[in-house]
Design a protein that fits this description.
- Helix content is 78%, strand content 0%.
- The protein contains 3 helices and no strands.
- Helix 1 packs antiparallel against helix 2 and helix 2 (34-46) crosses helix 3 (50-71).
- The radius of gyration is 18 Å and the shape is elongated.
Length: 78
């Protein structure tokens, strides 16, 4: 009974994560915070799948690089 409860929870996480991922991808062309929803979905799926964890880590790194580029000051004298 405990194993079936754990399997049910896992299935719910997977279905919710995949649904959120699809909605997030749709929001890339529709109004809405698509990138945030995709990150949220990958965080949910990352607990079950290695590919989702790796993709989320890549998104985080890209966000850090973008933040660093944006926060740099323009060169002095230009």
């Amino acid at each position: 009974m405990i194993a079936s409860l754990q399997q049910a929870k896992r299935l719910i996480k997977i279905v919710f994560g995949v649904t959120a991922l699809i909605v997030g991808v749709a929001m890339l062309v529709l109004p809405g915070p698509g990138v945030l929803v995709i990150a949220f979905a990958l965080a949910i799926l990352g607990g079950e799948f290695v590919w989702a964890r790796r993709l989320l880590d890549r998104m985080k790194e890209a966000g850090r690089r973008a933040r660093d580029v944006i926060s740099q000051r323009p060169p002095e004298g230009s």
